Amino acid sequence: MLVLEGLQIGYGRKVLATLPPVTAVAAGEFVCLLGRNGQGKSTLLRTLGGFLAPVAGQVRLHGRPVTALRGVERARRIAVVLTERPQVGALGVMELVEMGRQPHTGWAGVLSEEDRRIAVAALDQVGGAHLAARMVDSLSDGERQRVMIARALAQQPDMMLLDEITAFLDLPSRVTIIDTLRRIAAEQGVAIVLSSHDLELSLQTADRLWLLPGGGRFVDGAPEDVALSGAVGSAFDQENLAFSLDSGRFESAMAAGRCVHVEGDDVATLWLSRALRRCGYGLEGNPDRAAHRIVLAAPGRWRIDDAMEASTIAEALDVLSMRRETC
Ligand SMILES: Nc1ncnc2c1ncn2[C@@H]1O[C@H](COP(=O)(O)OP(=O)(O)OP(=O)(O)O)[C@@H](O)[C@H]1O
């Protein structure tokens, strides 16, 4: 559906990223775009939508350059959701969502029963049905974000470009919205590119990850391949923070020299690992590479094979009120 040919994004002579000769996105794919502040996520989204000319190369949607799409045709094919607060004046929520149908109405702009049904369903899909009678300027940031996503869904576009749309949402809402978008991509064949700072959620949910690690580079792959390649770490790691391949999370880099291996099949193993991380320990999957080995011998009971740091580790374990087993 979407083909990026020899694309370079940026402004004037300033090139932010150079993409491979050909990058294609199929209908139904859900792509998460990651990168630190200022690496070019919004610039890439604007370029994909045809709102900004590429420094080099071309973006084609169904074979046509996106820069050649105009007015209604662009609005039928491409929906864009930004984090910025829209200047909509005194507008009702339902009116705003129904605006998503405008590219599909005739020249008179009259909504049919079907248009209204689609708008209602779109608001429902983002869990916003209860907001239908509200005014847009009375909504919280998170509520407004749902309504903007609903408007984009009502547009029934071929491609959705979403720029940090989950920034204002609480965790359950973020997960729900991402699940909804994934489902819509798959069921309705919409290509979705979503920029995000939520690395862990993106790693878990994206069909594909696009990473802008800086230095003009662009990394494209399955989330697991991108993580295993070390690209996530090299893009985000800093002195006090490192991406752990063992846990798939960012961890305090201070932990690197204090590696422990935790053994046990109880759910407490997970929570013990978290407590240890918080206390500055790194988790190591391979016991031979760990400085200390902690064994959860039975529910609520633990022992440390290496006595050297037993007292410090004991402090971490105290958090869980676990009883030490003498060995
Ligand atoms: N119109 C412009 N002209 C020149 N440079 C620009 C313009 N707009 C943005 N930039 C610069 O391009 C770089 C990339 O900006 P962009 O907004 O795409 O980054 P981003 O990855 O989306 O960042 P963030 O995570 O902070 O939103 C930044 O250095 C920014 O200052």
UniProtKB/TrEMBL annotation:
It comes from Marilutibacter chinensis. Part of the ABC transporter complex HmuTUV involved in hemin import. Responsible for energy coupling to the transport system. GO terms for molecular function: ATP binding. Keywords: ATP-binding, Nucleotide-binding, Translocase, Transport. Residues 2-239 form the ABC transporter domain. PROSITE patterns: ABC_TRANSPORTER_2. Gene3D superfamilies: P-loop containing nucleotide triphosphate hydrolases. This is ATP-binding cassette domain-containing protein.
